[in-house]
Amino acid sequence: TECLSWGIDRERVLGGRTGVEVYFDYMRSFRAEFDDCFAEGLISAVEIGLGASGELRFPSFPERLGWKYPGIGEFQCYDRYLQQNLRKAAKMRGHSFWAKGPDNAG
């Protein structure tokens, strides 16, 4: 897959760690590795992308389906972990039918 799902932000599915923990450690390691470059002013800013190619597009361009730009967008609720969140939220509000993504959106 091209990117991590928001659905694993709090799920310990990456060697016992959450997506947030992995990203936090990655950024801390980056800062430590390039500390001299920051101190010397060689690096003055870091731009963090929100997905593949720096775009927040998950999962609108699924590579396994041929990646056609801009392609037909999908809904993030099709992710296994986000589906769980959607079902829970729909049930809590008394609208269990909200837990199904549209089947005619393309």
TrEMBL record:
The EC code for this enzyme is 3.2.1.2
Q: What is this protein called?
A: Beta-amylase
Task: Extract the PANTHER family matched here.
Answer: BETA-AMYLASE 1, CHLOROPLASTIC, BETA-AMYLASE 8
Superkingdom: Eukaryota
Q: Which GO terms describe its biological process?
A: polysaccharide catabolic process
Record-stated family:
Belongs to the glycosyl hydrolase 14 family.
Q: Which UniProt keywords apply?
A: Carbohydrate metabolism, Glycosidase, Hydrolase, Polysaccharide degradation
- Molecular function per GO: beta-amylase activity
What this protein catalyses is: Hydrolysis of (1->4)-alpha-D-glucosidic linkages in polysaccharides so as to remove successive maltose units from the non-reducing ends of the chains
Family annotation (Pfam families)? Glyco_hydro_14 (PF01373)
